[in-house]
Amino acid sequence: CTVGRGGGGVAAARRLHIGPLSENDRVSNEFTNRNPRNLEQMLLAHKHGGFELDKPSRSYWHKLVFEAGRKHLSGSVVHADGHLVVRASSSEWGVRRQLVSATDRSAAAAVARVLARRCLEAGLLCMQAPNTGGEASSLRLQAFLDGMKEGGVLLSESWSPHDSERLS
User: Fold this and answer.
1) How many structural domains compose the chain?
2) What SS3 state is found at 140?
């Protein structure tokens, strides 16, 4: 590490090194995690599994919910605590004006694309898909799930080291 052409690199570097200028330059011994989802993203958070007889199962961090009403369709992501994280609906003005009908398959795909975009912007990359027993029960639900996959969202949560089913 030389400074200028005068040589004396180590001696010049020692002269430039100054101790901490203020208390803010020192590394603190305490760390406060301000991101509550950090442990979930690192797969270290505990999944609240509930009890064996609970229906539906609550062994997820984020769950995808699809609701089809008579006048509009909506999709949302719910945290295991029950809080709504992200939502998109065909009743929103920006989505509705692009659609011919607010309740058909194209509306389900459009709502899924909007919801997938919002999920990725919020940092939600994977979530549990609605339990359909292997196949989607309706064409709208299938279009919704396909739209979420095309949007870049994984519809299965990553494995957690705390899952007892995987360990046995």
Assistant:
1) 1
2) helix
Q: In what order do the strands lie in the sheet with 62-68?
A: 62-68, 73-79, 84-89
The domain in which residue 60 lies consists of 50-150
Q: Helices marked H in 18-163 — which ranges? A: 38-41, 93-96, 105-122, 139-150
Please give the Cα distance from 3 to 63 (Å, whole number): 58
Q: Report yes or no: 111 and 88 within 8 Å, Cβ to Cβ.
A: yes
pTM, two decimals, is 0.71
**SS3 at position 81:** coil
Say how many Å lie between the first and final Cα of the chain, rounded: 56
pLDDT, position 103? 87
